[in-house]
Fold this protein.
Amino acid sequence: CHRKLVGGQVDSQAFDLTICREVCDNFSDCNFTPITPPVAPKCAACVATKDHLGNIIAGNPKCFENLEADDEDIFWAACPSTDGSPFKPVCESSSYVQWEPNGRQTLTVTQGCFEVLREENNDLDVCNFETVTGGIQVRNCIKTCDPTGRGDECNRRNMEAVIAKQGIENSEITCRSCSANSTSSPAEIEYCRNVPSPIDPTGCPSWANRACFNVRDAVIKPDGDASPGDSDIAYHKGCSSFDFTEEDNDNVETTESVNCREYYDINAHRYTESCKETCNDNFCNEGEVKQPMKCFSCNYAWDDFGIAVGSGDPRCRNPRNFAPSDLTTCPEDKPYCFTEFEADWNQRGNQFHRVARGCTSHKSVEPPTKADNCETYLSNTNGQWSQKTCAVSCDSAVLGCNDNNDIYDLFSTSKVSRCHSCHLSERPGENIGVQDCDTNTHAGDSKTCEKYEDNGCYTAKNWHVEYGTELKEAYRGCSSFTQEEVNAPSCEDFVLGGAGGSSSSVYTTCREWCDNDRCNDQVIENPGPDLSVKCISCEAEMDFFGNITSGNHLCFEDGLGKEYEQSCDTNVGGGRVPYCSNDLEVDWLPNGRQVLRIKRGCKQQTEAQSYCNEGSRGPVMFKHCQEQCAAQQGEVCNRDTIEALLSKFDSGKNMMCRECYADATMGEEWMEYCRNQPSPEDQGHQCPKWANTGCFNVRVIENGEDIAYSKGCSSFEIEGTQCTQFTAPDGESASVSRNTCDASVTPFCNKGEVDEAICGGNGGDGGNNGNGGDGGNGGNGGDDGDDGNNASTFAFSGLLMLFTALLY
């Protein structure tokens, strides 16, 4: 006998024929006996799929069971002939579990005839695990048998054992099970998101008893420009064939209990992220999967002509061009996405912009407003540098919530819609841009202003010298700044780097601003050299720790640039003329702190006043030095005199002191630390030249209770322990006991607690014009004071508001 396929042409069915031949010669008519064909091998054949809820998705439900020979619901398939081929038939039963990208788990079973090489084993019994492209996790278990020469289907009673191989033998775990997506009702979605009841309290099926799973499937980027919403989130819970916590599973993509990854839903045409979690206790898959925040992270800067400034990703301007694969997973301490937008009108005259996106720990107020979310900086020395920054954050359940430019609304005032737009940059030997941008009021094309630059139109021009040649730059465009945020019209001089990377040059920059469409048609002329009288102008304060408590730390340094120059008023009359002043004062405040203050700027006087004095104003001890110089055109005389002025406070001693401050608001532990011995003998830093006279130790007492301690480097030296009594801002009686010691003799000498001194009244006067007053003590007045109590009360009354801030 042999078998063959016949037919199978167009419109014709193919037949599997068994053809048998028999020859006999032992008697006449011997061929009357019917031929009995051999039994063809056959197998049970079926396919079926169900989900983790037990719903039949496709196929015959009986395919999941062991089969009986007389089961009429199953197709019994004869295996095709393999005569003359290198293959042989086998009956196969397989179970295939799949964790789909959207979070659903399914079981597919297959039975039928298959072919294997004749030399291969007929009896396979294996399971394979792998993760395939797209984040689909699968496990496939196969069992085969040889149907040759049998009268039945060898695979009809294999399926239940093959299915059980997907799970763990003797595992008993019970899980919560549900599914809800955009087609479900809001109540169903909320039910599955939280704590659904288990569908089968008797336990998980044999193919899904490794763990419980929990899935949150969220749309990241819908089709088109739509924004994802809560209806674009699906939830799945159930018994799991997979366990992320299995340490011996080398093929799992992660050993963490939560695994998130993006995929493209080809049916819905949208990007989605599925976060999958497994756990190993009964009913453990309750609640929502904690999905890590993911944000778009980038930065990009450009000028108002669209030219990139520096490096960056141009897609950051329009994040809709990003793909979900560009999302960055945020650390746990930065659970929000931010967008920050900045506009600058720089000292050369052009405006440029920067956008940054990423993860942040700061949650901004909702809804965002200019008052809460934006800051504007206008240079306080010359007004020729404006900067405006707005920042917003979001924590939407949808990933990548910083994928929009809504922040532009915080910049927009809709003042203008179009402005003249051009630029010119003269270089040695060549010009870049529109040649007559500086003189032709309508040079270049008018530009439609973006939302972030519709606050007005601007014109700017600068002149500078490079390699002996005077050059100019001109700019016209849309403005990101309102009238309140700019100083225009104005002209100022700056020292800047050359436009072509040459050494620094003095730039004269002039700016104009207007708020009508195409109004930026001004022609700006060179104002010529600046002949005004100028001084360095700034203020700052530094505490005894070296911390800047107000102002700019550079104010304490020599060599400040033009951005710190201030033009002085020369028309004051009365014989007064402008002087440049540097003023330094150290104060020892009632709360024990010593602070250094500096003030630099213009003063109008009849003559220069340079002096040093010291004394006390009530409970405040002070040292004060001032130097003034005549302000002149073309010379800033107080630019480089700070080091010399600080040296007037220098005692020349080399010392190191203990440093601390603690008050009652900081708690007992800090109070006790500072009261006793706040640092080891071998730690500390060199005292600054303005505070190297000694080490101080202070104890502040109110109503018999200690309320503050402080220790540090001192600008003052006193004999013994001095007590000053005063009335505190709350009306209570207070006193400060303080002493100093010489750390050049005994390093770190200011340890331990100050003994409470006996306080009487405290007289004193403020020194002036070089003659320091002498603070009285114990009821004795100062040199120019009245009796101690009266002098103290008089000196203190004018400082009451100051002490309110300093003491508390």
About this structure: The first helix runs from residue 159 to 164. Residues 8-12, 224-230, 247-255, 761-808 have pLDDT under 50 and may be disordered. The radius of gyration is 43 Å. Residues 660-807 form one domain.
